[in-house]
Amino acid sequence: MQDWIEKNQVTEIECVVSDMAGAARGKLMSASKFNDASVLRLPESIFMQSLAGSYPDLQSDINPLDRDMILQPDPGSIRRLPWAKGNSAQVIHDCFDKQGQPVKIAPRQVLRQVVELYRNEGWDPVIAPELEFYLVKPNLDPNQPLQPPKGRNGRAESNGQSFNIAANYEYQPVLDDMYAYAEAQQLQIDSFLHEEGKAQMEINLLHGDPVELADQAFLLKRTVKEAALHNEIYATFMAKPVEHQPGSAMHIHQSVVGLESRKNLFSTPDGEPNKLFLSHIGGLQKLLPQAQALMAPYVNSYRRFVRDMSAPINAHWGFDNRTVGFRVPDNNPDSMRIENRIASADVNPYIAIATSLACGYVGMKQSMKASQPMLENAFNKPFELSRNWYQALQRLSDSQALREVLGDEFIDLYVAIKEVEFEEFLNTITPWEREHLLLKV
Fold first, then answer.
1. Is pTM, for the whole model, over 0.90?
2. What is the CATH code of the structural domain delimited by 114-407?
């Protein structure tokens, strides 16, 4: 890292970790101080704060003293910080306690331990995330609805422009900055497209190692926001930012290859799904409804799960069927994979990828059975996913299978934080309530 810092004439370093929400936390220091630092510390409580700044009243031994964690930089994660003034860089860190043990509640560590479970079996998971987001006019009043920004033609989009090439160029300056920032950070963008909503976009990353791709998704969300701000608009990864428009997802393509053979383990030689593949889907079908709170982390996330609005409402699977929760794209024997369509764009990438892989892992270990593939419109089938945040939290808290893979400490803390956020939300009166209840009841 020191050689890289000197070669790139870096003068300032961001030392970052991902908190539970997927936001960057850490410290900023000079490059010389970073090179000389023997130990970098942060309090464990950075993983315990709600979005509004509150802390849960934990009835357990999690962090009773707000202890310091020791941060260890991951050398492979060092990247330029292209939007910062001067020559700045960022390094993602892993968190350890004073005895040198990984901090079990750190989202990056949760993903690492799931990947390790796979590799202990001779399996190596492969991931490719797809992130959707909206571009919107700057919004300084939270009581006002979000509006699409004006494009180069001076007008805002009046309707969805799914896969419209010309619509992409309405926001050319944002795209130029986004690609330049991504290239400077070596983020491996596969493709970019206009989604169904007004000024809704999607970025697809190339497939690869789960931790590396989670790092890239973590960095990409900040990159997109910075590119938008540079052009005086906002980019938002809210799950449902605009009324009557489709929500935004983080689709997760996942497959498994042999740790040594590097061959796809989901396919027969002639390209048909095998038993291991079907057991992986069986695990997703059984456990993802229990894990939904990890894939849809906020009250707003559940506004996305609306029948016939592009988001799944149940745990069916099918071949090239975008109405199901688990879509199997057209594949060849080397690329047999599953697209998990349940996670919303507001999710922490480390937690979402860890959860999706954990469900598939349990399915493979227990030889779970998948249902028959859905051959029709799954939106016409009953809801299987939770319709609200609190129900999802209860299902997560009660899931012994997920606790065994992700850890009691992590699950208990996550649920406690979300319960605090739920209580904070209940103290907020929405415009709908003022509109329909103020004078009518």
1. yes
2. 3.30.590.10
